[in-house]
Amino acid sequence: MTNRLYYGDNLDVLRQHIADESVDLIYLDPPFNSNASYNILFKSPAGAGADASIEAFDDTWAWGPSASEALMDITASGNHKLHVLMQAMKTAIGENAMMAYLAMMVVRLQELHRVLKPTGSLYLHCDPTASHYLKLVLDAVFGPEQFLNEITWKRTFAHSGARRFGPVHDTILFYSKNGHNRWQDLKVGHDDAYVTKHFRAIDEETGERFQAISLTGAGTRKGESGQPWRGVDPTIVGRHWAVPRAILAKEDLEAQGTIAALEALDKAGRIYWPSKEGGTPRLKWFVSDLEGARLGDVWTDIPPISAQAKERLGYPTQKPRALLERIIAASSNPGDVVLDPFCGCGTAVDAAQKLGRGWIGIDITHLAIGLIEKRMNEGYNGGGKREALWETIGSPRDLASAQRLALDDPHQFQHWITLKLGGYPWMGGKKGGDKGVDGYFYYVGDGGQTETGVISVKAGNNVNPGMVRDLGRVMARDGHKLGLFVCAALPTKGMTDEAASHGLIETDWGRFPALQTFTLAELFQDRAPKLPPLVSPNRKAPRVETRASHQTGAQDKLL
What is the pTM for the complete model shown? Predict the structure, then answer.
């Protein structure tokens, strides 16, 4: 299948685009933190100036018509147990933010159950604020017998709490569709304390830790395993030679006789000879021989994303890719389809791509869709075109649809086109002033240093030279050498003249307009702003070699 990235309400996308029993694994992380607003930080590369911040989503839930309609959908679904549960919850906790959240979640969980294959699994990631309510809901949707685990993931380090223990964990609720879910029994390495305690000896040649374990088994044998070796007769103490099968397989000795295998192990340095004369030789069981421990339902070995982590995007609620890799590896096979209906910055689809799974991602903001496109292009497509990896559905694909977005939702248009041009949005919140800045771009400046340019976006049809002049003042105020004025409408001659009046900037990559206009129409003509090579905040700028290596206007790839 073609991987798909949908912009839109996940309930609508599920109902209109995702077929029955077509998905192998679902992971969702629907945020709930009443009255909290999350902000995303785009970390600028070293030396690139201030970080950009933009409101990613407003996680504020309130009871209203949408929540009431969701409850009516539940009643109409015919799931009587679910109907009774939701009515009881409404009576118990009232018409509040939590109830609105649960009502909106229930209708989506019903659709997710529908699209899941009989061999499929669902992992719902949440925090203790709502986990107990969501487990009741999942029991009603999937059936209590399909509950498999409540996984505890230590998501952070020590937290102070007012008159309570510090909250440091998230909950991941794990359900199967019908009890026949795909399953890979994952193993994890033993921790350092276990290794230090049980593997105290150190091999003189390799430096690897080992423990000396018995080479004999209980009872005597009349065959080769009961014969003396190197002057040691195990039958004297009622035992026989018994090399662990795992070691025989690892050393490719399964076809050898017992004595020959012992000789080969000794030659390979795997026999421990005690200093006491006449002592029984033992096997060196190295740390590398450990198969690992079976994974339990308390996960403390995957740390949160640190401020210095390479994968950190600054997105609120971003989870480490290792967490999603574990879930996907445990509950799917290569080629299976993974769905994340709240895909945010795309960690689940990133992990699915890395592990060779197909994927479907859904999000309701152009900001998230743009971030995922950047992330996947930079991670797997060398910054090239996306068609080889996935199809984006719901985002503007032509001039007319982009113009509709500019008219219907200027705020989302700003996010979309800024990301499309290789920049990063900025805003001080929906109610805050933007100080004349809608976004930034990072580029390779003199001497290979990363520098910051500024973007102004105008979604409306009424544009004039004064707006370009304002951007010039912002550049002068904030010390930016390059500025980009982006507009949905065609600029007037006065606007292009105003931009041209700022002259050219001489760089190691050539000369570029200090301030230029760029239109939506030019974007869909496969044209690009005339800028030096752009730099992703997640990558360092390259060392400058020659200015001839860069072709002006070729901005299809981020360095």
Answer: 0.77
